[in-house]
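wait is this the right file?? whatever heres the structure
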């Protein structure tokens, strides 16, 4: 169902049906009105000859269309194609969403992707209908609209927090995109929130000062994060709860909270299963710098896999009767992502050879020894963070400084952790969601002690790679056997070809089907370097 495979007629049938599953996968622009909408817009369906389809809202902006005030297309879930696509356009979109253009400019984005700025602009314009500046500008408009609706910040603060260079540019862009003044955008946003029964929260978050301290002078910023149904929220929250690092994370069956170091400074966020809007999660956040808002939202969406297309995934997996039954029991399974690529790499390395429970203990000790404390300041009685979240995950430099003391286990493991930490700290290794899959795999496996399992698992979690099958994992193969699939690596790989490009989601179902004693987190694992018939790892 990914939008990159849909014809114009198929897209038109989707808007005739007002099918919400396609929201965010493409934009519908109506020539007779000059407005662009999401596919499920409740307005009267335009005639086919009046409709033009665009891959992004930025492309519609560039073509002279303005956003629909009724369906608010920029509030739709993101396009799942950006994780499915590993080409330069997909990688660029992931980095733009993470705020790279605001922080490093177009030259920085181009350098990360290995192209010149001019060539990157040509590629993105040809593929997406807009260049990197236009794509970033559309993102700034969305962030501004979010801040206008969710905070009482003065417009000047909203403008700079959203990434605009001036208040004038902010006013002009908001007016151009939404055909409304910032004042009216705020009023309409508040009206929609009130109608949905949610409470607009004051987001005057203040400064952390000189230390790693959270301001307690205001309530958290509260946002709604939309997703496509069905959504297996219980599966994601359970996954995160089983792996929560003491001091850094707290999780229950329907709530998750943690600290995080963002480009502008330390942050705290919490996610609840019951969002203020239908088909949404609730995000609460405190930030050092409000300009980190879009980066945080992007990372949380990646962590909870909110932009996935569950109909496409479940439909593809249901071609096999045994997997179809698993899908029926757990529709909308999601692939948990990562909010910090470096942290995820350390989790994966430490998780080798040991259970999830043991890895969690080791990571908790590491955080306790090397993680910077997350202090509170201010006189407000309301805590800035929930009890239990009191420190950041250690930086690579802090882990490198610990050396062999970073991991209370085999020296070879400690040596691998130290080498990787030193490489990250001095810039030799740089992980991001915009990495090329093959290049990231090669970079990771060049380190002694990192094998295909760890590199593949990092690709799953950091890149959101939907097509990873870890056939060297004993628990995964045990689950395959339980479901009637061949457990041996080569036959399993051959059978799994029918599930491309969704084998990462297949892996989740296979892990879930494994007998308890062989499921990750229960049975002790063997090393990566042993033969595939005895190898398993811990998805940390």
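ok assuming it is, sequence goes like this
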């Amino acid at each position: 169902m990914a939008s990159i495979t849909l014809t114009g007629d198929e897209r038109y049938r989707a808007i005739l049906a007002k099918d919400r599953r396609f929201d965010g996968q493409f934009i519908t622009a109506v020539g007779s009105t000059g407005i662009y909408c999401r596919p499920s817009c409740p307005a009267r369906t335009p005639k086919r000859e009046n409709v033009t389809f665009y891959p992004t809202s930025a492309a519609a902006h560039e073509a002279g269309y303005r956003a629909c005030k009724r369906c608010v297309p920029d509030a739709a879930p993101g396009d799942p194609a950006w994780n499915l696509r590993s080409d330069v356009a997909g990688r660029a979109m992931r980095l733009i969403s993470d705020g790279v253009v605001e922080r490093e400019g177009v030259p920085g984005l181009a350098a990360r992707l290995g192209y010149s700025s001019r060539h990157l602009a040509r590629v993105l314009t040809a593929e997406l209908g807009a260049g990197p500046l236009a794509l970033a500008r559309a993102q700034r408009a969305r962030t501004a609209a979010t801040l206008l609706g969710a905070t009482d910040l003065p417009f000047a603060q909203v403008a700079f927090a959203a990434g605009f260079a001036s208040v004038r540019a902010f006013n002009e862009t908001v007016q151009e995109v939404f055909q409304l003044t910032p004042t009216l955008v705020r009023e309409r946003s508040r009206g929609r929130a009130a109608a949905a029964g949610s409470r607009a929260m004051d987001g005057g978050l203040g400064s952390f000062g000189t230390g790693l301290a959270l301001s307690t002078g205001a309530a958290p910023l509260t946002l709604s994060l939309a997703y496509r149904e069905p959504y297996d929220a219980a599966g994601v929250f359970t996954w995160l709860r089983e792996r929560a690092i003491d001091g850094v994370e707290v999780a229950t069956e329907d709530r998750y909270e943690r600290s995080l170091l963002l480009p502008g400074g330390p942050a705290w966020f919490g996610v609840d299963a019951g969002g203020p809007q239908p088909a949404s999660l609730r995000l609460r956040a405190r930030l050092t710098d409000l300009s980190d808002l879009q980066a945080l939202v992007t990372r949380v969406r990646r962590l909870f896999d909110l932009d996935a297309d569950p109909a496409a995934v479940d439909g593809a997996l249901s071609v096999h009767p045994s997997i179809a039954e698993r899908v029926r029991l757990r529709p909308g399974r999601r692939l948990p992502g990562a909010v910090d690529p470096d942290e995820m790499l350390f989790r994966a390395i430490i998780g080798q050879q040991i259970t999830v429970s043991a890895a969690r203990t080791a990571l908790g000790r590491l955080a306790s020894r090397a993680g910077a404390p997350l202090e509170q300041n201010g006189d407000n009685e309301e805590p800035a963070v929930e009890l239990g979240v009191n420190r950041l995950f250690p930086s690579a430099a802090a882990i490198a400084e610990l050396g062999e003391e970073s991991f209370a286990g085999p020296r070879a493991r400690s040596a691998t952790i130290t080498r990787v930490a030193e490489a990250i700290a001095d810039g030799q290794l740089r992980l991001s969601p915009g990495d090329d899959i093959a290049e990231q795999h090669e970079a990771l496996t060049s380190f002694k002690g990192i094998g295909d399992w760890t590199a593949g698992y990092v690709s799953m979690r950091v890149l959101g790679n939907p097509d990873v099958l870890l056939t060297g994992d004993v628990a995964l193969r045990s689950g395959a056997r339980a479901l009637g699939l061949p457990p041996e690596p080569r036959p399993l790989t051959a059978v799994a070809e029918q599930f491309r490009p969704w084998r990462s989601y297949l892996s989740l179902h296979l892990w879930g089907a494994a007998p308890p004693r062989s499921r990750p987190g229960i049975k002790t694992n063997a090393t990566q370097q042993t033969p595939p018939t005895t190898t398993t790892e811990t998805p940390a």
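The radius of gyration is 23 Å. so i think its the right one actually
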